Amino acid sequence: CRSTLGTATAFPAYAMVVNGKVIPFELQSENVIPSTKDFHEFIMQHVPFDNIQNINRVDQLQTRLIDSLCKSDSSKGNTLLGSIFLLSDKFETSTLYASLAYSYRANWIFGESRAKNLVLAKEFGVKKYPMLVALIPEVDCSSKRNVSEGSRGYKVVTYAGEIKGDQITKWIDGLSHKLERNKHRKK
């Protein structure tokens, strides 16, 4: 800990790691124990929201969420399986969604449409917000052709559970396992 946080750091010390960077929690005074509110504010200041693509138009689904899958660098161990897309009536990105995007950044591209975007709501048949879907590519990246002619380039898998982190995590894990298994079968 001292090598990471520095020798002048008093212990106990707190820090957050985001993208491999250690961000120390600065105590107001050595003798003051931080409150839950202090920790919450610190975490909220450093939540990485940059793993989420903002989608405002239908064409951006293709350019930001599907085409990007073919640009992933598999030599670094990144095997993108698809995209997770949130349609929301909120104006701000939730910390739950940001944390999911961070946790799954190696295998999924995350996108969102906020503030009841009518065009995208119509595209996905939104009846109730929020709506969470996985976009599974039907694109052969080596030839850049749709696997099935006339398709939009992806299959939509709709999440039907409650908007709770553990349930969404199980859904994404299940999709990941299924898609990984299918990739191995095709080889």
Secondary structure topology:
Blueprint lengths: L1 H4 L9 E4 L2 E4 L11 H11 L5 E3 L3 H13 L11 E6 L7 H9 L4 E6 L4 H7 L6 E7 L1 E2 L4 E2 L7 E5 L6 H22 L1
C-alpha geometry: globular
Arrangement of strands in the largest sheet: 3-5-4-6-9
Determine the strand fraction and express it as a percent band: 15-25%
List unreliable stretches of 5+ residues. none
Order of helices and strands: HEEHEHEHEHEEEEH
Largest sheet: 5 strands, mixed
* Total helical segments: 6
Structural class: alpha/beta
- Beta strand count: 9
Binned, the helix content reads 25-40%
Rg calc: 20 Å
Query: What's the assembly state of these chains?
Result: single chain
How far apart the termini lie comes to 44 Å
Average pLDDT, rounded to a whole number, is 82
Structure notes:
The chain is an alpha/beta fold. Helices cover 35% and strands 21% of the residues. The protein has helices at residues 2-5, 36-46, 58-70, 95-103, 118-124, 165-186, and strands at 15-18, 21-24, 52-54, 82-87, 108-113, 131-137, 139-140, 145-146, 154-158. Strands 3-5-4-6-9 form a five-stranded mixed sheet. Helix 4 links the parallel strand 4 and strand 5 (108-113). The longest helix has 22 residues, at 165-186. The radius of gyration is 20 Å and the shape is globular. The N and C termini lie far apart (44 Å).
Pick out its properties.
single chain; 187 residues; alpha/beta; five-stranded mixed beta sheet; two-stranded antiparallel ribbon; 9 strands; globular
